[in-house]
Amino acid sequence: MPEPSSAGPVAAAPEDSDAARLNDLGYSQELSRSLGVLGNIAMGFAVVSPVVALYAVSMVGTTIAGPAWVWALPIVLLGQCLVVNVYSELASQWPLAGGPYQWGRRLLGPSFGWMSGWVWQFAVMFGNTTVAYLAAPWVFALFGAVPSPGAMVAVAAAILLGCMLVNAYGIRILSWFVSLGIAAEAIASVLVGFTLLLFFREHGFSLFTETLGAEQLSGGSTVTAFLAVLAVAGWGFIGFDACVSTAEETKDAGRQVPRAMWWALLSVGLVVMLNAMAVALAHPSPAAVVAGEDLDPVTTAVTTAFGSWSDKPFVAVVLVGFLACAMASQGGAARGVYSLARDGVFPFSSQVRKVNRRQAPIGGLIASTAVSCSGLLLGLNATAIGSLIAFGTAATFLPFFLVSLAALIARLRGTWVPSGHVRLGRKGTFLNVLAVLWTAFEVANVCWPRAVLAPPGAPWYQVWAGLLGTGVVITAGLVYLLVKKPQRRLREAAAAAEPAAAAAAGDRPGALAAESS
C-alpha cells in the first residue's frame, strides 16, 4: 500500500497525522489513540514477560540439556532480532492492528494475508490459554492449596474473564494494569536476579559448560538435546508483536511501534538471560533439576537464598507478572480479531468488529476469550495441556516465517520497497533472508515430534502436538478460504480503493498490484 503524499510545510499534530494515515489505509479511527511510546513498550514487555518466559522454559531447558541450556537463549534472541528487523520496516509503513494479516495481503495478496492472519490469530488466542493455565498454580500457591485439574481450569477461566473485563474498560486502564505488572516484573526479575548473582552464588561460571548427563534423555546426543532446547527457548522470545497489535492506539505509530518492539524484545531478552544464569548459579543442586526431582528451580533458588519468608511475597509478585502478561496478550488477540472482522473476513464479523463506548474492541474481546476458554478443556487432563503449549509455540513461529517470507518475495519481485520511517535498504534484504532461514528452521524444530518434551507416558498426539495443532488450524483456514472466499471481498475492496490511493501516491503502483493480485 503506498504512502500518502506530503501534508505540506506545516507538520500536523501526531494525533491528526495518525488519523490521516489510518484513513489513507482505508480505515477510520475507532480505537482510542492514547498510548505513548512507553505505553506501547509496556504492552510488548508484558507479553514477552521475563517472569513468564523464565518459568516456562527454565525447568524444561535444564532437564533436557543441564545448565548449559542457557546458551540457547542468546541464539534465539539473535534470531528474533532478525524478525524484528523485518517487522520494523512493515510496522513503520503500515502501522495497523493485526499485523500479519494486514501486511501479508499488501505484500502477496488477499489469500496469503488472510491465511497468515488466521494462523497468527489462533496462535495468540491459544497462547492466552497457556498463560492463564500457567498462572493458575500461583493462585493456589499463594494460599497454600493443592489444586485439582478441575480447579486449575476454573481458576484459569476466571483469570481470562477478569482480563477481559480490564480490557473492556479501554486502553488507558489496560495500560495502567500492565504498568503495575511491569513494576512487579522489575522486582521479581531484575532485583532478585542481580541479588542472586552477586551475593548467593553456589557455583562458578564453569557450570554453564556442563550438561550433568541431561543429554541421556536425547539418546546421549548433546546436539539433539541442544536442538530441543532451541525449540523450548523459542517460547521465551515471542510476544513483541503485541506492540503492533496496539499500533492504532499509539501516537506517531509509524515511528514509535518499531522502537517499542526493539525495546521490548531486547530488555526482556537481557533480563531472561540474567535470571536464567542467576537461578542456575544460586540453585543448591542443579543435578536435582536434571534428575526431575525439583520441578520449580526458580522458587527453590529464591527461597534458599532469601529464606522461607520470601516464598509468599515472591509468589505474589510472580502472579502479578503472569496476570499482566495475560491482560496484554488478550488485548493483542482482541485487536487482531477486530482487524479481521472490520474487513468482514472473520466468522460472525458483524458482531466481532464491535467497539464499545470506551473505544475498546469488545466484540474481539468476547470472541478471543471464548476461544481461549475452550482451550482450557484440555487442562481437565493434566498432561494434555502440554499439547497446547507445544502447538502455541509452533503456531506462533509460523506467522513469523510467513511474514518474513512474504516480505522477502515482495522485495525480490520489486513490488515492495520499504517507504516508512524505517528503511534498511540492501542490508534489509540480507537481514530478511536470514530471518526467513531462522524462522523456517525454528518452525521445523518446534514442530519436530520429541518424546523428551512430553511428560513420561504421554499419548502419541501430545508428542506430535506442534505439527498436529498447526495442521488443524491451517486445514480449517483453507476450508474457510475455499468455502467463504474472504479473499474475494478483500480484492473488491482493494479495487475500489485503488484509484484514490493511486492519486495520493503518484507513481508508486507496486504495492497496489500486490494488494489486488
Question: What key phrases describe this protein's structure?
Answer:
mainly alpha; 517 residues
Protein architecture, described:
Helix 3 (50-65) packs antiparallel against helix 9, helix 8 runs antiparallel to helix 14 (311-341) and helix 14 (311-341) crosses helix 16 (362-375). The chain is built from 22 helices and no strands. By secondary structure, it is mostly helical.
Q: How are the secondary structure elements laid out?
A:
Blueprint: H1 14-24, H2 37-48, H3 50-65, H4 72-93, H5 99-107, H6 110-142, H7 149-168, H8 171-199, H9 222-233, H10 242-245, H11 253-282, H12 286-290, H13 297-306, H14 311-341, H15 349-352, H16 362-375, H17 385-413, H18 425-447, H19 460-463, H20 465-484, H21 486-505, H22 510-516
Helix pairs in contact: 2-8, 2-11, 2-14, 3-9, 3-11, 4-9, 4-11, 4-17, 4-18, 5-6, 5-17, 6-7, 6-14, 6-16, 6-17, 6-20, 7-14, 7-16, 8-11, 8-14, 14-16, 17-18, 17-20
